[in-house]
């Protein structure tokens, strides 16, 4: 038994991708998971799922003395950490928004804000603010996009704690959409939906499930190195 395993760790309040040494015992793992999930070691019940879309548990890490390698864990399986005594650790209450007062903004107030999505689209001439047909020849004028092929980037994600980083491989109009500019990205990890081609048209080359196409407003270009998801005893 050697090496490490990369898995998704899920709890009522957290979701993250982690790498663990297969020699780590379940008891040692629980100590790390307490720092990640906030669930005390005695209250942890860890089940293993094949994927996040499959809710059926295929096993349980129920022997604190056994190493992770004993359970035959595979990369990108899911460790689902349940709290057997949530009343003692407030598990789930961090994500309960029923008691949070709703913030509402009138349409006129929203239009005055300088940090809104509406203002961003107006400033960058995106969506309905961007494309204008030339009255002389019917041509479509595409908005300028400050995203360069080859640039490192991070893509906006709706999943808390998940960073989707990669490299820009394509910028321009596509055949799968009637209008607008799309950014083709090769992810560092298999978070994508294709291999750089859509509906039989190839826009760039990458491995299957590493490619994705997103709108420019979801892309942040910058110095985004490939993340090292390895975690030792002094990191959480």
Structure report:
It is a single chain. The chain has 236 residues and is an alpha+beta fold. The protein folds into 3 domains: 4-89, Ubiquitin-like (UB roll) (Roll); 104-143, no CATH class; 145-226, SH3 type barrels. The chain is built from 4 helices and 14 strands. The protein has helices spanning 26-37, 86-89, 107-112, 117-124, and strands at 4-10, 15-21, 44-49, 57-60, 78-83, 132-133, 140-141, 152-155, 164-172, 182-187, 197-198, 201-202, 211-214, 219-221. Strands 2-1-5-3-4 form a 5-stranded mixed beta sheet, with helices on one face. It starts with a strand and ends in a 15-residue tail after the last strand. The model has no long low-confidence stretch (mean pLDDT 85). It is found in: Cytoplasm.
Compact overview of the structure:
With 236 residues, the chain is α+β, with helices and mostly antiparallel strands. The protein contains 4 helices and 14 strands.
Write down the secondary-structure element order.
EEHEEEHHHEEEEEEEEE
Tell me the domain tally. 3
General form: globular
The computed structural class is: alpha+beta
The appropriate CATH architecture of the largest domain is Roll
CATH class (first level) name of the largest domain: Alpha Beta
Which stretches of 5+ consecutive residues score pLDDT under 50?
Answer: none
Q: Percent of residues in beta strands? A: 25-35%
Give the termini distance in whole angstroms.
Answer: 25 Å
Label this structure with key terms:
single chain; 236 residues; alpha+beta; Ubiquitin-like (UB roll); SH3 type barrels; 3 domains; 27% strand; globular
